[in-house]
Amino acid sequence: MSFRISDYTGHYPALINLGLPILVSQLGMIVVGFADNIMVGHYSTPSLASASFVNNVFNIAILACLGFSYGLTPLVGAMFNQGRLRGIGALMRNGLMINLIFSVLLTLVMGVLYLNLHRLGQPEELLPIIRPYYLIYLAGVIPVALFNVFAQWSYAITNSRMPMWIILVANAANILGNWLLIFGNWGCPELGLLGAGISTLFARLLCMVAIIWIFFWHRSYREYSDGYRQARVTRTEMLHVFRTSMPISLQMTLETSAFSLCAIMAGWIDAISLAAFQIIVITGTLGFCIYYSLGAAIAVYVANAEGAGDRPKVRNVAFAGYQLMLVLMVVSSLVFTFFGNGIMAVFTDDPAVRLVTATLIFPLVLYQLGDATQITFANALRGTSHVMPMFWIALVCYLFVGIPSTYIMAFTLDMGVYGIVLSFSVSLFLAAALFLYFFMRASRVGVRQ
Predict the structure, then answer these.
(1) Does the global pTM surpass 0.85?
(2) Which of 18, 64, 200, 350 has the fewest C-beta atoms lying within 10 Å of its C-beta?
(3) For residues 341 and 345, what is the distance between their CA atoms, to the nearest angstrom?
(4) What's the gap between Cα 333 and its chain centre?
C-alpha cells in the first residue's frame, strides 16, 4: 500500500466540499442541543437530569433509525456513479417502505419501555417530569426516520447543501419554540421540559415535510421522483436494502445502547451525577458531530469508488478522510482542554453540578482519538457495502467489553461518574482498531468478502 501524500491530497477538496455542509448542519444541531440543555438547565436541575435520561434512552431509537437509513448510502452512491437516476428513485421507494416499517417497530418497542420506566432505577422524584417528555419524544421517531431516508439520498448524490438548509431552518424554529414554551414567553404557557419536547417535535416534523416536498416537486429531482412513482414495492428490493441497512443499524444501536446504559448507571449514583453526565455528553457531541460530518462524506466517496470498481481509490479516499479527521480531532481536543470548563458552566447554575463536570474534561479529551478513528473507518467500511462485520464489532466492543468496563470503573473501583466517562476510551479504541482491520480486508485489491 502506497503512503505517498500525493495519493491523498487530491481527495481533500471533494471530501471538504461534501462534508462542510453536513458539518454546518451538525453544528446547527449542536447549537440546538446546547440551547435545549442551557434553557432546561437554568429552568431546574431536575429538568436537566430528566432530559439527560430521556435523551440518552431515545438516542438508541434515533440512531438506530439513522443507522438503518445509512444502508441506502452505498447503494445510491454506486448507482449515482453509474448514472442510474430513475433506478435510484425505485430504490428510494423500497428503501422508504422498509425504513417506515423499521421505525414503527422501534416506536412500539420504545412504547413498551415507557410502561416500565419505574423499573429502571431512576430517582423517584424525576418520574413525573420524565413521563410526559418521553411521550412527546416518542412521537418524533417516525418523522426522524423518514427525514433520514431522504437526507441519505441527498448526501449520496453529493448534494449535502439541501439537507443543511432544511436542518438550519428547523433548528432556528426549535430554539425559538424552546424560548417560548419552556419559560412561557410572549404569553405562551410555561411548560418547562415538556415545552422543549414540543418544540423539538415540531422541528422534526418540519424537516420531514420539507425534504419530502423537495424530492417530489423540485424540478431538479424529477428523474428521481419519476423513478419513485413508476416503481413498485417488492420483497426482493426491500430485502436488498435490508441486508445493507440492518448490520449498520445494529452497530449504531449497540454503540448507542452502551452509552445510554451509562446514563442509566449515572442515575444510579444520584441526580447530580446524572445532570453532570448529560452536560459532558452534550459537550462531547461537539466532537462526535464534527467527525460524523466528514465520516458521511467518506462513506459517499468510498461508495462512488466502489461502484466504479476502483479499489485503490477506495483506500486512498478513506485515508485522505482520516488525515482530515485527525486535524478535526486535534481541534476538538484543544477546545475541550482550554474551553471545556467555560462551555460546561453555561448549562447550569448549580455549583454541585459544575464541580462534578469540571472533573470530567480529561476523560472527555482522552477518548477523542478513538472516536474519530472508529467513525472514519466505520463509514469507510459502510461505503464498501461490506457491512456485516460492523454488527460483530459493536457487539464485542460496546456490550461485551464496554458495559462491563463501565460498571467496573464506576462501581467496583468506586470512580463514580468519572469512571463512566473514562470507560468510553476502552470501547472506542478497541472499535477503532477493529473497524480499521476489517476495512483493510474489504478494500484489498482483488479481494471481496
Answers:
(1) no
(2) 350
(3) 6
(4) 19
